[in-house]
Amino acid sequence: MSIASMTGFGRSVVRTDAIEIECEIRSINSRFLDLSFRLPQQYSAAETSLSKIVRETIRRGRVEISVRRNALTNLPVGIQFDQVLFERSLGEMKSALQAQGVLDPSTLSALVGVLFQRREVLDFVGVSADSDSETATLEKAVTEAVADLRRMRLVEGAALESELSQILARLTAHADHAKAVTVSEVPAIQKRLRERVDKLLAGVSLDENRFAQETAILAERADVTEELTRLDSHLTQLAECLRTGESGKKMEFLLQEIGREVNTTGSKSQSSDLSRIAVEMKSELEKFREQVQNVE
């Protein structure tokens, strides 16, 4: 399974004899899955089922779903008239005008015209096609748009995977180099300490047992074997995440753990080579972190 990018675009158009439904989906980076719908009013009740369709395929990202509906035939028109509301409103307004002494035929005619403009009194509505059939058409349009979005996110993800694999290869090479340097760390500490002591004592005899003890203490403080072992484990897990298409969240967690081991290695080491390797690994980790924020 390949990794997927969080950025992408998908589109679909589904037609029946009566309607055409167009769906466009855009996605950008986000820490979680955040869905936003722009639906025609008659589809508002379908948002829950449409969310389920998206969530079955998309795991993370800010996803905007826009749906447009176009009628392809002239469907019959129905009339909704609330006679009770009309008569009550007209009666109340006539009483108010009579009380003011301004009720006349022209005023009454204008009043009736105003009432007929109120949608709650008089409204013209299109007779919809079969609701179940139209809902199925809507869900098909969204499903196809999500599939189109997914294809683009996978294409973007392939490019991300290539870049991340190259960075991971460099991180692994640095870690291997660090392990090689660590093998010679104790002899190097002994050599540096011997040179300093000889210089300070200037020919005075040295207690070799005490020297060995001090060397052991310094070597233990500088020992980064455990850190490098954990680092190797984290890098292996990171490689597995890339191979299996694991979520970006898990990779971000592993990067934090890798960064912790690299920082400890750099601070404990007495070797300039290890310190340099730690700096180079931090640089590579930052590159990886920037890219992995685009991973779903």
Q: In short, what is this structure?
A:
By secondary structure, the protein is of the alpha+beta class. Helices cover about 65% and strands about 15% of the residues.
Provide a descriptive summary of the structure in words.
With 296 residues, this protein is α+β, with helices and mostly antiparallel strands. The protein folds into three domains: 8-74 and 130-154, 2-Layer Sandwich (Ribosomal Protein S5, domain 2); 77-126, no CATH class; 158-292, Butyryl-CoA Dehydrogenase, subunit A, domain 3, CATH 1.20.140. 63% of the residues lie in helices and 15% in strands. It is built from nine helices and six strands; from the N terminus they run βββαββααβαααααα. The protein has helices spanning 47-55, 83-100, 105-116, 131-183, 185-201, 208-222, 225-244, 248-268, 272-292; strands at 8-15, 19-28, 33-38, 61-71, 77-81, 122-126. The strands form two sheets. Strands 1-2-4-3 form a four-stranded mixed sheet. A two-stranded antiparallel ribbon has the order 5-6. A hairpin with a 3-residue loop joins strand 1 (8-15) and strand 2 (19-28). The longest helix is centred in the middle third of the chain and has 53 residues, at 131-183. The radius of gyration is 36 Å and the shape is elongated. It starts with 7 loop residues before the first strand and ends with a helix. The mean pLDDT is 84.
